[in-house]
Amino acid sequence: MAEHETSGLQILLSTLQSSCDKDVILNILSVLTDLLSVGTDRRIHYMISKGGSEALLQALLNVAQTPTPDYDVLLSLLRLMAKVGQKDKKFGLKAQKLEAVDVMLSLAKKNLNHGQNLTRCLWVLRVYASSVTVGTTLGVNGAMELLFKVITPYTRAHTETARAAVEALAALLKSKSNSRRAVNRGYVCQLLRLYEDWHQRDTTNSYICIRRGFLLCLKHITNVRSGRECFLLANGMETLFKTAQDCLASKSLDPIVNTVTQILRKTYPKMPLPSSALSSPYSFPVPGSSRTEPSQPKPEDGCEEDGEEIEKDFSNEDVEVKEEDDDLERDAEKLMSRPQPDRPESELEQYRAMCLELCCNFRELKSDSEDEMSSEDAPGTLTRSCLRVIPKAAPANHQPKCGERDQTANRRKLPQRTSSVVLQNCVKTEEQEPGKLASDELGTVVDSFKAQDKANTAHPNPLAKDVSLDIQISHASCLNSCELGHQGTVRASEVVTKLLERHPGNIPFHNPCLYMGKAACTKSIPEFRVLAFPDFWGHQTLPYCQSVHQRRYGIQKAKIFEDVRRVIQPEDTIDQVVFSLDVPSCDAPGCLKFFSKFESGNLRKAIQMREFEYDLILNPDINTTQHQQWFYFEVSAMKSATPYRFNIINCEKSNSQFNYGMQPVMYSVKEALQGRPHWIRVGYDVCYYKNHYQRCTAGGTAAGTSGKSCYTLTFTVVFPHKDDVCYLAYHYPYTYSALMSHLDILEQTRNPKKIFFRRQTLCHTLGGNACPLVTITAMPTSESYANLEQFRGRPYVVLMARVHPGESNASWVMKGTLEFLVSSDPIADLLRHCFIFKVVPMLNPDGVINGNQRCSLSGDDLNRQWLKPSPTLHPTIYHTKGLLYYLRSLGRAPVVFCDYHGHSQKKNVFLYGCSIKETLWQAGCSIDTSVVTEDVGYRTLAKVLDKVAPAFLMSSCSFLVEKSRAATARVVAWREIGVLRSYTMESTFCGCSHGLYKGLQIGTGELEEMGAKFCLGLLVLQLKSLPCSKEVMAQAEVLLDLEEEIADHRSQRSSSSVETDDELPIGDEVNYNTDSCSDQEGDFLELDTIRERPSRGEGGKAEGEANKGQRVMLKYPCRCNGEAREPAKFPPSD
């Protein structure tokens, strides 16, 4: 049947080319028109594949070259050519090859006075001009002059012809040669006048297509520099800005507003950033480096268009897809091979100190003070360790000045405070730690202010009053900061003392005194002497979830037009620098006050543009000129009930979840003092877009050069109180000092008789800060040989986080993991009996401390250094990899390796893993299953987390190995260490698009819950896929109690698995066979009766059919900060 249809179409096309009979030609054209007028475009593409375009062009030549062309035939033929030509990307080139281009141009010239004939000719010319090569030829042969004879000022007559002419002209102007020709002949001013005339007189908006056609012509002309210059000289910006104001309120006029916006953004004069330098004001000498200044960013492929255009007759989308596929690793041997270690095996012996639980008598590992514990609930003490520390990698002038030294040092006294709140994590020892206040000293300071406190009781909130006064008097001693001395001493001001006395003490796992002590020993490049109040006081998880922000329609366009107004009306701006790290004393009266010189802070400069509008500039990462995204700063001296607009103008990423419902976070000091110490999502009219700034300085701009473009994050905030002190951040901050104090508290509050918790220093960073390594497992039930062997024989799980400093959400997930692992939850207890956890909770302490977004002090992205890390430049990566090598050398490679990250452009939480077959399949390579065998157990954990973790989404997971990720932790642990289940776990900065938290922004509670649910996933993984004793299986069955505890959350998930429009595209469904699989569907069948929607990019049909049922939820839900939290779409009204 198909052969008859094919031969029939070919006969029609052949007859059309050869016949001279009018009736035959008309009948064939009628049949073809009917065939192509129904169905999908597949019919047109099929006709093109059979030579349909060539047949139509040849028929045109036959008819047009007769002495008296028959226009009945020509009109039908031209109509069909226009339809087919739109779908044939090479139609113009085919016409040029058959010499049909000049024929059509000649026909158009002959029919200038015949509207219908001319219109058909112009539509075909538009199709021809879709090829830049043909468009250039038409321009040389006078096509533009012809079209300007047809295009007239506003008229209601012959509007179809006018539309065809304008769109044909726009197609011609895609050729840069034609654009330059149009500039030289003065067509820019003519087009502006025509557009303005049609805009003003088309009061009913009946001819939007014609008006937009004029704008498309201007858009293409401004692709060349001469066109932009001519456009500006003709006051084009003012003209388009003025006319677009009438269109902003109407959604039907979006095509016009969008095109105007594109033109204005393109022609907006490119300006260097208003910053004295591209590099950070903070500097650090990199050991062994001869580099004197950070490398400059490479110029971006922008709109420098003076060179000859490159002909491309394929779509950009096809190119992007091809580039993505090209990044996939296609070499099966490389995927299957295991590289040799990057260091001699003799060097691995030093990591024995990190794993003494494997080789020492258990008595040697017991704490010296453990026998003195009076009960299981008594607070623990710091564990004395006999472990030696791996040599520090910091240069001599950057060695630690005060603790965190190796734990072989004598224990020092932690600061205590005299208040009604019991400080559970402080212990008494004989020696006071340098840089900290002893409890009796702090108590004396507190006592000295009791009389003054009584005098303030008449004020309803005397502390807030004192704080307000202090803020106005001096920044260094105000309540929002605790000054750190040059030698690391903590100077407790009067306000700080009263704060410590009045702190409610109800923030779990946080103590201000302990935090101050840890911060005093934290080494920063700027030598920070001030603590940010939120870090000192603490954050309490909100009791509700905040909804994804819904911004007003058209607000982003309005923001762009406001930026254009600055150029057109510069006299309306103040343009006053009110804060700068480069010029310390630039405070101006009557405006907001900014500050960022504290741990993890990032704000370089603040410029007041209008009374309540500020442009902000962020610091790049130290020793780089890029990676500006993370911000964290203090703002004060605000008015109440006043909208303040903030524009962060040097962001780097091309898109952000700020465009899809994400909001920045804010912490109010006054709110905290009133009992609400929360980081909350704030801001409205939140937008993220490309601006007119380039990453270069005014002094460094050279003629003919251009830097990378910058992006603006803009949002408006109404502060809750007058003269408050507030902090704004990209995401919930989590500092290095917070981690170190948190580890201390975990160590003190654990049950030492049940929990083996050992904290060691893996190494020191370039900046001299300790990189902690934590080991967690269950204590042996006895010291018998059998129990000790079981203790040492547990499989390892290695977890890491915060290799990228700006991904603070990873630390909150890690916080949830650590707190769950040391909790008294029965599932946590069972998990500790199943695994030994090795945790590096912060791989890049220096970057976190100094407010970097992505790099360490060496200026390197540490997650691209795992192939050959330097022990000097990348010590945390080098020694973490060495620890993995050591475990592998003992035959104890981790069963699970996971690196916690944050993702700035996707929602939900998901895993990246590694698969040979999925990578080769996606890359289009043939797979020989007799050679390429693979255990698909790498997918089990993701499937389990999709069932037990509300924020997790299986369909966002990917198991592809890309060439550009070859040096990441995930890929190196998989290839070199041989970890089958090697993952990167990505957590959203924004919120969730599916499940229980759909439509909600993610908070610290949800992130901590994800960390706990990851632990549950490991337990289920143990039961499903790993060797498991009968005793563990029996305990798990009791704890999970499937018949009672399976909760059906299917109804809470979206009925459709289609991602929202802002999400990155997900690959097609993967379906392949495998000969090796340890993750059999028959194992632990209760968990696989779970009903699961089909996932894109995962599994085959058989697996989708097998997973039917319900979602598993724990009998013991994760309790964040001691309380179970329920999602709520709207915060309670106050």
From TrEMBL:
Requisite cofactors: Zn(2+)
Single GO MF annotation: metallocarboxypeptidase activity
Keywords for the protein's UniProt record, in alphabetical order: Carboxypeptidase, Cytoplasm, Hydrolase, Metal-binding, Metalloprotease, Protease, Zinc
Catalysis performed (reactions): C-terminal L-alpha-aminoacyl-L-glutamyl-L-glutamyl-[tubulin] + H2O = C-terminal L-alpha-aminoacyl-L-glutamyl-[tubulin] + L-glutamate; (L-glutamyl)(n+1)-gamma-L-glutamyl-L-glutamyl-[protein] + H2O = (L-glutamyl)(n)-gamma-L-glutamyl-L-glutamyl-[protein] + L-glutamate
UniProt feature, compositional bias: Low complexity: 275-285
Gene3D superfamilies in alphabetical order: 2.60.40.3120, Leucine-rich Repeat Variant, Zn peptidases
EC number: 3.4.17.24
Main location per the UniProt record: cytoplasm
InterPro entries: ARM-like, ARM-type_fold, CBPC1/4, Cytosolic_carboxypeptidase, Pepdidase_M14_N, Peptidase_M14
Compositionally biased region (Acidic residues): 302-330
Designated name of the protein: tubulin-glutamate carboxypeptidase
Gene: AGBL1
